């Protein structure tokens, strides 16, 4: 069988450059894909925010904020003074301070309850849906909060007031506008974005989504061009791209770990805030770790595919074993492939259009690889039958055992040469020379010369 000619030298350099750039784009695609999904996917945002509040360190910090908001906007000492007997009214202020400590502990327990977690998820979903609609140009109005996108935590604060027995007084303060307990306009609200920032944010959103598409599909496109150019060495290109994907995923994970310290140091102004900030970073970047891990898995699959197409002896044996099935049962092979692809989509459904396109492209690449493997096995083993590979494996094992026995015997004879009769030692050396000649290590002239030296002593 005529071998495929190797690629031209100029193509080798081009192919290497393409594979390197494809790996770099894969690394960049990890981060743009993470930001795109984490920042602009409402379901992903709500899921992450829920995990944030479920973390005890973070929920305690939010509980402290809620208590601070309650005490900052409601005159708790005045409310207590009205409810206490006249002879105990002078201790209303100290009692309010003591109740504040108890309130904080009660709030910490409350923020782990399903009711508060539901309110938190609802508040995040409303705010994020509103923000995404604005960023994508699907909303004509910014919000009803003076041109600001806000995260409304008032229901949570009121839930906390209900647990503390202050809900009636707080509602009265809201409805009647009492001077002693009137709430501020931004009571319980966290500003997400200001209208002055939205024009820039919309531009950044468009650029971000464009880069996510460019890096993801660009990486696969460069890989495809490299495979097309690398005639005769395509398995090496698949191997290089697979290793590049593994390196990109590991680099993203390492960068996430390295950036953690810098981000925490810049955001945590006090030692008490350091722990919740670290936990928030770990949770908010867990999707980044997941994407990087997926890229590593795909890289490993590319490496495995390259091995199956390589000239390694074990890979050739696998191809020989698969040849009859790939040739005679194509329908079954493609049915199994389609079933596995469908199960992969069902088990790991793609999030958004870009993930769906990437999934379909990767499935198409896997199909192309399967077809290439089928053609390769047919050209290598056109008359292969089931069981041939087993016979070949047994023959190779027999040869390997015989070769190992000869080497061990030669080594033993070499060790004992000094203790044996010189005539026997010459015969052993001549035997070894004959083996080297049979293997092609020595030419006929070299064999005769060495034989003459052994016989002459």
Topology readout:
Layout: H1 9-40, H2 42-54, H3 56-73, H4 76-83, H5 92-110, H6 114-135, E1 148-152, H7 154-163, H8 167-176, E2 189-194, H9 195-229, H10 234-267, H11 274-284, H12 286-308, H13 313-328, H14 330-347, H15 352-380, H16 388-415, H17 422-438, H18 444-456
Antiparallel strand pairs: 1-2
Helix pairs in contact: 1-2, 1-9, 1-10, 1-12, 2-6, 2-11, 3-5, 3-7, 3-11, 4-5, 9-10, 10-11, 10-12, 13-15, 13-16, 17-18
Mean pLDDT: 75
The radius of gyration over CA amounts to 36 Å
| Count of alpha and pi helical runs | 18
Note the gap between the termini: 48 Å
Question: In oligomeric terms, what are we looking at?
Answer: single chain
For the secondary structure, the number of strands is: 2
The share of residues in helices is: over 70%
Count of structural domains:
3
How would you describe this protein?
The protein has helices spanning 9-40, 42-54, 56-73, 76-83, 92-110, 114-135, 154-163, 167-176, 195-229, 234-267, 274-284, 286-308, 313-328, 330-347, 352-380, 388-415, 422-438, 444-456; strands spanning 148-152, 189-194. By secondary structure, it is mostly helical. A two-stranded antiparallel sheet has the order 1-2. Mean pLDDT is 75; it is low at 1-9, 140-147 and 177-183.
């Amino acid at each position: 069988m005529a071998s495929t000619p190797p690629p031209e030298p100029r193509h080798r350099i081009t192919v290497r450059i393409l594979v390197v750039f494809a790996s770099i784009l894969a690394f960049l695609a990890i981060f743009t894909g993470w930001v795109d999904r984490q920042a602009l996917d409402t379901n992903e945002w709500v899921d992450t925010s829920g995990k944030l509040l479920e973390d005890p360190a973070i929920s305690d910090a939010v509980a402290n904020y809620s208590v601070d908001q309650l005490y900052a906007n409601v005159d708790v000492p005045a409310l207590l003074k009205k409810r206490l007997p006249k002879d105990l009214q002078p201790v209303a202020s100290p009692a309010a301070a003591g109740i504040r400590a108890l309130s904080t502990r009660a709030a910490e327990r409350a923020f782990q309850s399903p009711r508060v977690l539901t309110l938190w998820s609802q508040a995040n979903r409303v705010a994020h849906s509103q923000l995404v609609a604005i960023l994508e140009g699907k909303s004509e109005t910014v919000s009803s909060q003076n041109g600001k996108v806000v995260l409304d935590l008032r229901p949570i604060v009121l839930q906390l007031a209900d647990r503390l027995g202050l809900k009636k007084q707080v509602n009265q303060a809201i409805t009647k506008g009492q001077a002693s307990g009137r709430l501020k306009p931004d009571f319980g609200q966290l500003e997400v974005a200001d209208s002055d920032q939205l024009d820039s944010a919309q531009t950044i959103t468009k650029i971000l989504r464009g880069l996510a598409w460019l890096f993801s599909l660009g990486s696969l496109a460069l890989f495809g061009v490299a495979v097309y150019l690398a005639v005769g060495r395509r398995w090496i290109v698949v191997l290089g791209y697979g290793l590049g994907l593994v390196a990109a995923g590991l680099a993203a994970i390492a960068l996430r770990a390295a950036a953690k310290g810098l981000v925490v140091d810049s955001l945590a102004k006090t030692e008490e805030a350091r722990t919740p900030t670290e936990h928030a970073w770990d949770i908010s970047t867990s999707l980044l770790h997941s994407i990087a891990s997926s890229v590593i898995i795909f890289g490993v699959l590319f490496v495995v595919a390259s091995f199956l197409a390589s000239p390694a002896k074990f890979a050739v044996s696998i191809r020989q074993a698969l040849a009859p099935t790939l040739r005679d049962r194509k329908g079954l092979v493609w049915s199994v492939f389609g079933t596995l692809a469908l199960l992969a989509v069902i088990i790991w459904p793609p999030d958004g259009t870009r993930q769906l396109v990437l999934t379909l492209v990767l499935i198409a690449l896997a199909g192309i690889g399967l077809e290439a493997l089928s053609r390769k096995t047919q050209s290598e083993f056109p008359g292969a039958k089931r069981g041939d590979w087993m016979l070949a494996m047994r023959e190779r094992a027999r040869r390997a055992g015989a070769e190992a026995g000869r080497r061990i015997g030669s080594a033993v004879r070499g060790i004992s040469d000094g203790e044996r009769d010189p005539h026997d030692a010459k015969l052993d050396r001549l035997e070894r020379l004959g083996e080297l000649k049979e293997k092609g290590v020595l030419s006929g002239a070299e064999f005769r010369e060495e034989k003459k030296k052994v016989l002459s002593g």
